[in-house]
Each structure stands twice: as C-alpha cells, then as structure tokens.
Design a protein that fits this description.
Shape: globular
Strand order of the largest sheet: 1-2-4-3-5-6-7-8
Number of strands: 8
Radius of gyration: 23 Å
Oligomer: single chain
Number of helices: 16
Structural class: alpha/beta
Length: 429
C-alpha cells in the first residue's frame, strides 16, 4: 500500500468531500429542473449530510422537500437556511414551491422569525445621519417597477439626510429584482456618503419598462421633491446602481442630455456596476447561452431576453441594426458609440469584475459573454471623444452576493471608499 502523510490524507478526504457535495448539489438541481422532486430531495439529503452551510442550497433543498411532500424536512432546511444568512422574506412568502407549507402552524412561526431577523438587521442599517425617512411616491405600481415586494403596490424611496449642510444628492438604484433592504446590506456607500454631508436617495425601482418612460417619471418626481424641499441645485445629483439600476442611470443621463426639456435634471455624474450596454452584443450572448444549454437559469433568462428583443425590435440585430443602436446605451462600431455620445460631457465611473474562473467553471461562458467588453470599449470611446472624466475599474474575483455565493455581477465589486472619493471630487467641480 502506498504511504501518504496524515496531512495529505486529510487534504484528500476534504477534497473528496467538497467535490462530492458539489456533485450532489448539481444532481439535485438537475433532478429539480426535470421535475423529479423526490430524487432531487434525496440528493439534497445526501449533500447536507456532508455540509449544510450554503443558505441558497438549503433553501433550494427546502423547495425540493416541499414538492416531494416531506414537510418536516422542508421546514428543517428553511430554518437552517435562515440561520445561515438567507433573508429574502418576500420570496419565501410568494414561492409557489412552498405553497403546501402555508397551512402548517410552523409556517407562520417561520415567517415571523425571518421578519424579526430582518427588522433587527434593518434597525442596524438605518443608523447615522440626521434622519431616515420612507417617502411614498405612489400607492399603485401599474408598470411593475418594483417586484419581489409581495402584495404591495406602493412605490417609495428611502431618504437619508445628513446632520450638516447638504453638499449634494446620491441616488442609488437596486439591481434587477433586488429589494432595497438587500441592496443596503451589501454596501457601505450610503453610510459614508451621509457622514460626508451627502443626502442619499434609494428609490423602489428594481425592474422596469422597455422605453423607461415610467421609471423616468418616478425619478423626476423624486428629484423635484428633493430640490423643492431642500433647495439643492439640480447640478448636484449623482446617480448610479448595479445591473438594471446601472442601465437606468445611464439611460436617464443620455435621454436627459438628448431631450433636456423632458427631464427634470441632467446628472452631475454616473457610477455604474457591470451594466449590459450594447443590446446587439447581448442578443448574441443570449443566442450562445441558449445553444450551450448548460445552466438552466441562464438559459431561461436568455430565452426571455431574446424573445423580448425579437418582439420589440422585430428580430435580430443582423436584420434590424439601427433599432438596436437606437435603443442601446452604447453600440460598438456605431458612429460615436451610438447613444454613448450623449455621455461625452458627464463624469462616469464604471466597475466590472473579470472572474474567468467563475465564467468558465460555474457558467461555461467566456469573455465574449462578459459585460466588461462593452464597458471598457465605451469608456475608451468616450475618452477618444474627449471625456477625461470617464473611468473604469476592473477587479478580479471580488464578486460575492448576499447569500455568500460567488458572482461577478454583484455590489461587492465596488469599493465604496473609492466611489465616494470620486463622488466628492465630481460634486466639487
């Protein structure tokens, strides 16, 4: 028998167990997607005997257990998931996978437990500054600008007011489908901004329309209220966000420059995290993702986006290139980058993360599928056109989501201190 050291033995066992856990989770997910819920539940059980720390895996295991009608097991995994950091209360309430648990007395106890946990965390989040106020904008949300908020239809914003004289306004927009509270849990930018005398506004917009008119209307209403109440100059607003929030920030800026009479203000500057910019490239990405047919969540999203573009623009960018240029934030190869030309005079700070390990091993994608390609290209185009205040920061492997999973499409790729320094410098110009 070959001799191995004790340390090597432990390393071998650990690697085997870690790999075995991942394999079992993949099998559980595949069985779930195939609607073989009992088999999926069996794989989750085996996986959690090895390890039970990943809140997202535990939640998915609870869904499989509920669908397999193993209610006791489902509640056990849900509790473990919450104890390990899972916080999505509205998803818990509305997830159809868990409907057969709603009639159990344990269900209400679980909801109450998570509500109290979230309330406690929020009380810690909403500290500092002169005041924090939740302001209602509308009692209805016909365009579904804010999703994952249960049965609520209210549109609102949180207003963080500094103790001292207000130097400017920072508007932070959540990513697609992300509720405000979860955005704030992942960043410190709003806290340190308030300490520096900057008012922070976080609107309840995390989804949206294709033409953005409904979103623009809500933003303009908020901006109007802030200017009227605090007498802040219109040229002291910085807007930014992640993903969909970044896209909305950039689109608002472009349209405000293009048609200033239709918008309340032109932002002083924009910060944007990992925004998809060129819809033509994004369409091609969707085609590749569908053809690869490996990661089901990615495939489903790609199909939804591609079908939406087909319906809106009549087909692919090969057939209707001008429509894609007209409706993209930036268009590679188009004259002056298409709509990017409207950003020539606006300070711009963009963040993206090049995590090739995640792209290849977790999603089976490559750099052609990376948003950073368009981000770097647009910043370069803006600099060529004379925008000396256009900047991109590329990190590597910094993307970590709220549930602890790795993903470069995350708030963590932004250094809040660096961003605030840029904001202060931009407001002072």
């Amino acid at each position: 028998m070959k001799k191995i050291t004790l340390l090597a033995l432990f390393a071998t066992i650990f690697t085997s167990y870690s790999q075995n856990y991942k394999d079992l989770i993949k099998k559980a997910d595949s069985s779930y997607n195939a609607k073989s819920y009992k088999l999926s539940n069996d794989f989750y059980k085996k996986a959690f005997k090895i390890e039970s720390k990943n809140s997202n895996d535990l939640y998915n295991g609870a869904c499989a257990s509920a669908l397999a009608n193993e209610k006791e097991n489902a509640f056990f995994y849900l509790k473990l998931s919450i104890n390990n950091g899972w916080t999505y209360l509205e998803e818990l309430k509305t997830d159809s996978d868990l409907e057969n648990l709603h009639s159990e007395t344990e269900w209400l106890k679980l909801i109450e437990k998570l509500q109290k946990k979230n309330d406690k965390e929020l009380s810690l989040i909403f500290k500092g500054g002169k005041e924090v106020v939740k302001i209602s904008v509308s009692k209805t949300d016909p365009s579904e600008l804010y999703i994952n908020d249960g049965n609520s239809t209210e549109l609102f914003y949180y207003k963080f007011v500094p103790k001292n004289a207000i130097k400017g306004v920072l508007v932070i927009l959540p990513s697609g489908g992300e509720i405000i509270e979860n955005t704030l849990k992942q960043i410190s930018l709003y806290k340190i901004a308030v300490e520096k005398g900057i008012m922070v506004i976080v609107p309840s917009i995390n989804w949206g329309t294709d033409n953005r008119e409904a979103e623009f209307t809500v933003l303009d209403k908020i901006f109007n209220e802030i200017v009227a109440t605090y007498k802040i100059p219109k040229d002291k607003f910085i807007i930014g966000g992640l993903s969909g929030g970044a896209m909305l920030s950039l689109t608002y800026a472009e349209q405000a420059v293009k048609n200033p009479e239709k918008h309340f203000l032109i932002p002083k500057g924009i910060f944007a995290l990992d925004a998809p910019l060129d819809k033509a490239r994004f369409y091609k990405y969707c085609e590749r993702e569908i053809l690869r047919n490996i990661v089901q969540a990615g495939v489903d999203e790609a199909k939804r986006i591609k079908n939406n573009y087909d319906n809106i623009y009549g087909g692919s960018p090969d057939k209707f290139p001008e429509k894609y240029i007209e409706n993209s934030i930036y268009s590679y190869g188009a004259n002056e980058g298409g709509n990017a030309k409207y950003l020539k005079e606006i300070p711009l700070l963009m963040f993206t993360d090049m995590d090739t390990d995640w792209l290849i091993n977790e999603r089976h994608r490559d750099l052609y599928d990376w948003n950073g390609i368009d981000i770097i290209s647009m910043i370069n185009q803006l600099k060529i056109m004379g925008n000396e205040n256009a900047k991109v920061i590329v990190s590597q492997g910094k993307g970590i989501r709220l549930d602890g999973s790795k993903n470069p499409h995350s708030w963590s790729i932004m250094d809040s201190e660096v961003c605030l320094k840029w904001i202060m410098k931009t407001l002072d110009k």
